[in-house]
Amino acid sequence: MENRDVVQLIRGPKDTEVKLEVIPSTSLDESQTKIITLTRNVVKLEDQAAEKRIINIKNADSEFKLGVVELPAFYMDFNAYQRREYDFRSSSKDVKNLIRTMKNNDIDGLIIDLRNNGGGSLLEANALAQLFLGAGPKVQVKTSSGSIHGLGERRGFQFYDGPLAILVNRFSASASEILAGAIQDYERGLVLGTDTFGKGTVQRVQSLSLGQIKFTESKFYRVSGKSTQNKGISPDIYLPSPINTEEIGENKLPGALEYDSIAKTKVRDFNRIIASTDLLTSEHAERINKSVLFKHLEKMKTWRKIQQDKKYLDLNIDNRRASKENAEAELLAMENDFRQKIGLNTFESYQAFLDREEAEEEPDIEEEILLEAANVLSDFIKYSYKPVISMSKRG
């Protein structure tokens, strides 16, 4: 079932309940489900607003203060924008204000966290890219008639010109891919994470007498001429992922348009990636190999893929039960081995593992991935970053 169909089923009157029957990632088959009860409510702009934090990373004899901006969506108040209100709310304005605060705290580098950001306003993707790139095209748009034009400002200054990393995952799509692709093509900073979703098309909703129709009216391309369609953005350095990225993406959807490319457009090369990423990758790999959590994560992913790739189903019920019990025992053994290594209590049975509550002491995988991105950025600053004369305007 596609996302839009799921959304239609979930929507309903405010304050009413909706129950979702989901298959947990720990389930061995579709019969092991869990009921989640949600209360419907209005999604406010504040719920998807950008947030900031500062983390300190020790790297050899140095310590780096790194700013992080978490951006769940590329948003803007379209109604206020159409009314030409000067102070309308938008992601680019919010992010600019957050960066201003962190610049005043003398951060050594900045991470823009676009994980699980499914996109939003194309105008906002351009505006955000301008904060880091200044003037110039950020993306190319090709209409259904075949005409191609660049989107970007002819004039403008970088607001932030320090060390930069964009953190993405498989659920980073559309506008997220525009920003990450522009940063990568301009060689302005690092892109870290996994391959992104691969949505390189623009849709428009047309009102009809009996409803609405949504259709694709254009495609967007990176300034390099490459499309993000189906292929997405490949990171400069791959970070661990708790999900199997092969199962998700635009290329898995029925009727997805094919990948293609157009001519690249000339842009300024910041040349911030002055050294090969081999050294950064080597340092990253060394940390991953020492991490109990990340080694467990990869072990679990490999095991699950083996289970999912099985193309047969034993018709003998006793054999099926035995196979299921063996799989449960294997999964429980891996989980208990991991918990022992990090000093947590083990589970007495597979059912106890399934019934577990979210425990605060368990490692936060998403947080650990962010910290590893921060480690990579600190390596980047230490080994590869070439400072330039500032062209930014403080505001």
Question: Could you characterize the architecture of this molecule?
Answer:
The chain has a six-stranded mixed beta sheet, with helices on both faces. It has a four-stranded antiparallel beta sheet with strand order 7-6-11-10. It starts with a helix and ends in a 12-residue tail after the last helix. Among the domains are: 3-39, no CATH class; 47-273, 2-enoyl-CoA Hydratase, Chain A, domain 1. The longest helix has 25 residues, at 317-341. The chain has 395 residues and is α/β, with parallel strands linked by helices. The protein has helices spanning 3-10, 78-82, 91-104, 122-133, 175-185, 278-290, 292-308, 317-341, 350-354, 365-383, and strands spanning 17-22, 34-39, 51-59, 62-70, 109-113, 136-143, 148-153, 164-168, 190-193, 201-208, 211-221, 237-238. Helix 3 (91-104) packs parallel to helix 4, helix 4 packs parallel to helix 5 and helix 7 (292-308) packs antiparallel against helix 8. It contains ten helices and twelve strands.
Please estimate the helix content: 25-40%
Count of helical stretches? 10
N→C terminal distance:
47 Å
Low-confidence stretches: 388-395
Describe the structure using short key phrases.
six-stranded mixed sheet; globular; four-stranded antiparallel sheet; 395 residues; 20% strand; alpha/beta; single chain; disordered C terminus; 2-enoyl-CoA Hydratase, Chain A, domain 1
Q: How would you concisely characterize the structure shown here?
A:
With 395 residues, the protein is α/β, with parallel strands linked by helices. The chain has helices spanning 3-10, 78-82, 91-104, 122-133, 175-185, 278-290, 292-308, 317-341, 350-354, 365-383, and strands at residues 17-22, 34-39, 51-59, 62-70, 109-113, 136-143, 148-153, 164-168, 190-193, 201-208, 211-221, 237-238.
